[in-house]
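In this section we walk through a basic example: taking a raw amino acid sequence and producing a predicted 3D structure, encoded as discrete structure tokens. The instruction is simple. Fold the sequence below.
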Amino acid sequence: MKNIANISTALTARQHSLQALVELTEYIRELAESNDWLAALSEQRRRRVLMDEFFATPCSPAESSDVASAIENILAVDQLVSEMLYRQRGSLAHEANQSCRNIRNVGRYLSNT
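The resulting token sequence is shown next.
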């Protein structure tokens, strides 16, 4: 039975690149979960460069199944990150509206005193 180190060394350079893209995608999700959107955006830009480099070489028929699976995984994680961002945006918008209401209320209070 092969151990994990042997499996890792058996991967081709393209498989390593594909694995790195999936791992980077998971890292972006972790950053989003911790509300570190600036770092998530930076990593997403870096991932875009790595994806462009990876897909500059056409996929061979032998690797197409692995690539398709990785793409599905990346898209699923990206959907989760998009949902988190949408919720965060809604939360920030609500907070901003509440702040505006509070300012107006303070203004009304002061004008009536």
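Looking at the output, two observations stand out. The CA atoms of residues 90 and 96 lie 10 Å apart. DSSP finds four helices and no strands in the chain. In the next section we compare this with other chains.
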